[in-house]
Structure prediction request, 104 residues.
Amino acid sequence: MKRERFVNGIDVIRLHDTIDQIRDYPEIGKFEFRATNQWVDGTHCRGTVQHFYGAIHEDTDRPPQTVSYTHLRAHETVLDLVCRLLLEKKKKNPEYHPPNKLHH
Prediction:
Protein backbone atom coordinates (compact mmCIF):
# COMPACT_ATOMS: atom_id res chain seq x y z
CA MET A 1 0.00 0.00 0.00
CA LYS A 2 1.37 3.40 -1.00
CA ARG A 3 1.85 5.81 1.90
CA GLU A 4 0.38 9.29 1.44
CA ARG A 5 3.10 11.96 1.33
CA PHE A 6 0.98 14.73 2.89
CA VAL A 7 -1.75 14.35 5.50
CA ASN A 8 -3.40 17.54 6.79
CA GLY A 9 -0.51 19.57 5.36
CA ILE A 10 2.13 17.45 7.12
CA ASP A 11 4.85 15.77 5.06
CA VAL A 12 4.43 12.35 6.67
CA ILE A 13 7.48 10.78 5.03
CA ARG A 14 9.70 13.63 6.21
CA LEU A 15 8.13 13.41 9.67
CA HIS A 16 8.90 9.68 9.93
CA ASP A 17 12.46 10.26 8.68
CA THR A 18 12.91 12.96 11.34
CA ILE A 19 11.56 10.67 14.07
CA ASP A 20 14.01 7.96 12.97
CA GLN A 21 16.91 10.45 13.10
CA ILE A 22 15.93 11.59 16.60
CA ARG A 23 15.59 7.99 17.75
CA ASP A 24 19.12 7.29 16.48
CA TYR A 25 20.60 10.56 17.77
CA PRO A 26 18.39 12.04 20.56
CA GLU A 27 20.45 15.24 20.92
CA ILE A 28 18.93 16.63 17.70
CA GLY A 29 15.48 16.52 19.31
CA LYS A 30 16.30 19.09 21.98
CA PHE A 31 14.72 22.49 21.25
CA GLU A 32 14.64 25.75 23.15
CA PHE A 33 12.66 28.69 21.79
CA ARG A 34 13.54 32.30 22.61
CA ALA A 35 10.36 34.27 23.18
CA THR A 36 9.61 37.69 24.61
CA ASN A 37 6.30 39.12 25.68
CA GLN A 38 5.53 42.82 25.95
CA TRP A 39 2.49 44.25 27.68
CA VAL A 40 1.08 47.03 25.48
CA ASP A 41 -2.02 48.25 27.32
CA GLY A 42 -4.93 46.79 29.24
CA THR A 43 -5.18 43.18 28.06
CA HIS A 44 -3.18 43.79 24.86
CA CYS A 45 0.13 41.91 24.67
CA ARG A 46 2.68 41.40 21.93
CA GLY A 47 4.79 38.24 21.76
CA THR A 48 7.86 37.70 19.61
CA VAL A 49 9.90 34.62 18.75
CA GLN A 50 13.08 35.01 16.76
CA HIS A 51 15.90 32.68 17.72
CA PHE A 52 15.89 29.11 18.89
CA TYR A 53 18.24 26.27 19.64
CA GLY A 54 17.41 23.08 17.82
CA ALA A 55 18.90 20.28 15.76
CA ILE A 56 22.20 20.81 17.57
CA HIS A 57 22.69 24.43 16.61
CA GLU A 58 21.59 27.95 17.46
CA ASP A 59 19.31 29.36 14.75
CA THR A 60 19.72 33.14 14.53
CA ASP A 61 19.11 33.69 10.81
CA ARG A 62 15.36 34.29 10.88
CA PRO A 63 13.54 37.59 11.19
CA PRO A 64 11.41 38.00 14.32
CA GLN A 65 7.87 36.63 14.22
CA THR A 66 5.46 38.74 16.24
CA VAL A 67 1.84 38.25 17.17
CA SER A 68 -0.44 40.57 19.13
CA TYR A 69 -3.24 39.28 21.25
CA THR A 70 -5.72 40.85 23.59
CA HIS A 71 -5.88 38.23 26.30
CA LEU A 72 -3.86 35.38 27.69
CA ARG A 73 -5.77 32.46 29.08
CA ALA A 74 -4.81 31.39 32.58
CA HIS A 75 -3.40 28.06 31.39
CA GLU A 76 -1.23 29.50 28.59
CA THR A 77 2.54 29.50 28.73
CA VAL A 78 5.39 30.67 26.49
CA LEU A 79 4.96 27.39 24.56
CA ASP A 80 1.42 28.43 23.69
CA LEU A 81 2.88 31.68 22.40
CA VAL A 82 5.29 29.74 20.19
CA CYS A 83 2.36 27.73 18.82
CA ARG A 84 0.42 30.92 18.13
CA LEU A 85 3.38 32.41 16.27
CA LEU A 86 3.86 29.29 14.17
CA LEU A 87 0.15 29.17 13.32
CA GLU A 88 0.20 32.88 12.44
CA LYS A 89 3.15 32.27 10.10
CA LYS A 90 1.31 29.32 8.52
CA LYS A 91 -1.79 31.52 7.98
CA LYS A 92 0.32 34.20 6.28
CA ASN A 93 2.13 31.65 4.09
CA PRO A 94 0.16 28.39 3.66
CA GLU A 95 3.04 26.91 1.64
CA TYR A 96 5.50 27.43 4.52
CA HIS A 97 7.40 24.30 5.53
CA PRO A 98 10.29 24.64 7.99
CA PRO A 99 13.64 23.79 6.40
CA ASN A 100 15.02 20.34 7.06
CA LYS A 101 18.33 21.11 8.76
CA LEU A 102 18.75 17.73 10.42
CA HIS A 103 22.06 16.17 9.57
CA HIS A 104 23.29 12.89 10.93
Summary: The chain has a mean pLDDT of 77. The helical segments are 12-24, 78-92. The beta strands are 6-7, 10-11, 32-41, 44-54, 57-59, 65-69.
